[in-house]
Amino acid sequence: MVVIFLIPVTDNVGAGADSQNRSISQIECTCYACPHQLEGYTDRGEYIYVRERWGHVTVSINDVEVGSSPVSFEEEVEGCYPKVVEILNENGFNLSLEEFQDFF
Q1: Residue extents of the structural domains in the chain
Q2: Which of 51, 54, 89, 102 lies 20 to 30 Å from 40 when distance is taken between CA atoms?
Q3: How far apart, in whole angstroms, are the C-alpha atoms of residue 95 and residue 73?
């Protein structure tokens, strides 16, 4: 028996030179209820999706999950933003919490 693993490849996601120096061109809260959701775009037209639900925040770029982190009850909704900024910065962004919060 032969087993073949297929790994999807998406441009501009993950490590590498192309993923560096990204910035957010727009992002907005599209749902304040559970799940708390943010949607927007990078300056390169990449789709950003952030979802916080059941004590966990997940960040995706172009429908590929690039990071996630648990959040405490006290951190839910806007309190999860520091973790979102941390995940984005691990993926080529250079954002401060204040810059991220300025979108809202």
Answers
A1: 18-101
A2: 54
A3: 24
Residues 77 and 53: their CA atoms lie apart, in Å, by 9
Task: Tell which phi-psi region holds residue 34, choosing left (phi > 0), alpha (psi between -120 and 50) or beta.
Answer: beta
Strands (E), 9-96: 24-31, 36-42, 47-53, 56-61, 64-70
pLDDT at position 35 is 83
- The answer to whether the CB of 100 falls within 8 A of the CB of 31 is no
CA distance 67 to 8: 17
Q: Of all residues in the chain, what percent are helix, strand and coil, respectively (each to 5)?
A: 25, 35, 40
pLDDT the model gives residue 18: 56
Q: Are 82 and 29 in contact (CB under 8 A)?
A: no
Instruction: For 33-63, write each residue's pLDDT tens digit.
Output: 878 899 999 999 999 999 998 889 999 999 9
- Mean pLDDT throughout 65-94? 86
Looking up tokens 């297929």 gives 6
Q: How far apart are CA 3 and CA 69, in angstroms?
A: 32
